[in-house]
Specification:
The chain has 476 residues and is an alpha+beta fold. It has three domains: 149 residues, Beta-Lactamase, CATH 3.30.450; 100 residues, Helix Hairpins; 148 residues, Heat Shock Protein 90.
Amino acid sequence: MRTKLFLAFFLVIVIALISNLIFERLIMNDFDEYIKGTTEDHLYWVLASIEGSYQDGRWNMNSLNEAVHWSMMLGFDVRIDDTSGREISDSRAVMDSLSPPMKRRMEAIIRSHAAEGAYEKYPLYVEGSEIGTLSVRSLKKEEPSRVKAAIFKERGRNFLLISFLFAGLSAVAMAVLLSLYLSRPVRRLKRAAERVAKGDFSTRVKSVAGDELGRLSESFNYMAEALQKEEALRKRLTSNVAHELRTPLAVMKAQTEAMIDGIVENKSEGLENIRNEIERLTRLVEGIEDLTKAEASFFSQGEYRPVNLREFLKGIESSMEPIFLEKGLHFSLGEGGDVEVVADLDKLEIIVKNIVSNALKYTEKGKVSIGYGRSGREFFVEVRDTGIGIAEEEIPKIFMRFYRGKGVSSDRGVGIGLALVKELVDIMGGRIEVQSKVAQGTAIRIWLSDRRLPAKRAGILFPATRGETRGDGDTV
């Protein structure tokens, strides 16, 4: 990549060089055209002055000599002939007629004896009649205009050359530095990707710029973090599943061996025990399937959308109410106004439904209610039940995978629902608050940041904070 970037910059430099040469040629041509135009203007002035010295059918020698004098000052060696070809005046005659001091000054400026080239002839006219001929050629001037013109052209070329060298060297230096600077984050990403490919999912790349490379680095970091979490979850799931499978398989093996050996005389009872363990395994497999589906959402950045929290929870209430009615429980959404938030609805739905399902499993009579509200930069959803409750010392353990409280039968689940809730809430940068008393019920509140406001990260808190307004009007 560095080579390609450098070649791209070098191509720009070559194009700049060609442009510089074309520019230099155009400037010099324009300057030459300017000098040529100025010379023609001076020549026309000399013609007009000489023609103006012819008055009343004869030459005014004083005026004519003055015109010849000025023509020499303008760099012309001139000679005036009448219509018969007789010489009237020329530059040498005018020079010889000057006073010695004036002649020395003129000779210091021009060299009349060093005229260049052949004469060019121009007819002279007065009122449409030809009065003679003006012969003109250039003088070599010791002074100014010609020398200055040459100096200007030389300095112009030198300036363009120096400016190009300076700009070219600067461009080369910038090409090298920029190619190194632009390729550095790409090289870092390449090395990081190689480490991830070897299994080092803890690799991260530093993201500084806010451009495309910066966003690419952020996406890479998110990918590496997702892979790291997935690997950790895979190892933990494998360990937990092996642990959970060991007990029912051991029971089934013992029952089968006892029946084969004749230790268990009532085979129907033994087969019933085996059937119960198979059902337990089936629930475990179903829980693992649910866990796998939920974990698929862990590694996506999610789509945050604006939502009316009341309408969202109303939809969950409507979809799950028949299950509660079948069990003889009352399920309701608390009273409250509209609360507009921006959240990842897919993850939020999994969280709320898992908490509600957990409340349904552990509530035999009474009701389950959902509350909601906002406090500052965050919003909350709370599920409150009148179930069996949780002992205080067990509250920190309820979010562990496959954990079931003391005395809780396996037919109430395999202990995955609340573990998923915790992991999803952590991913979304929220926190969980739990308040529970044995035989009185449990309240689980989920706090999440409203993405329309700056995020506020926090951990899991126990017990709940007090004084927040609920959707059903109660306080926790």
